[in-house]
Amino acid sequence: MSCGAKLGGLSLNGVNVAKEAIIQGQVVREGVPVENAYVRLLDRTGEFTAEVPTNEEGHFRFFAGDGEWTLRTLAPRAEAVDKKVIAQTGSIAEVAIAV
């Protein structure tokens, strides 16, 4: 991957992927990106750790610690969606979430 490559639509320019555990992805409804959905990062015990809104293209990103996490996605006119993901330093966990 070259510097500034767009994996999953988000620029990684300036991010040292080798030193980070990155969880990122896109929220879609019937194939259309969902802007301003909220994606929560929950730890192994279900405790809230962080939350970010999706951008205009439905993308989100977290820098997390190594281990198992749950992404809880909240979007208008949709049930909450939980998705398990494993974060590991030096890799990008790319997650697609349909609501």
Automatic annotation (TrEMBL):
What biological-process terms (Gene Ontology) are attached? carbohydrate metabolic process
Going by the entry's taxonomy, the superkingdom of the source organism is recorded as: Bacteria
What Pfam families does its record include? DUF1416
Q: Which SUPFAM superfamilies match?
A: Cna protein B-type domain (SSF49478)
Which InterPro entries does the annotation name? DUF1416 (IPR010814), Ig-like_fold (IPR013783)
Signal peptide range? none
Q: What is this protein called?
A: DUF1416 domain-containing protein
The protein's organism comes out as: Nocardioides islandensis
Output the lineage of the source organism: Bacteria, Bacillati, Actinomycetota, Actinomycetes, Propionibacteriales
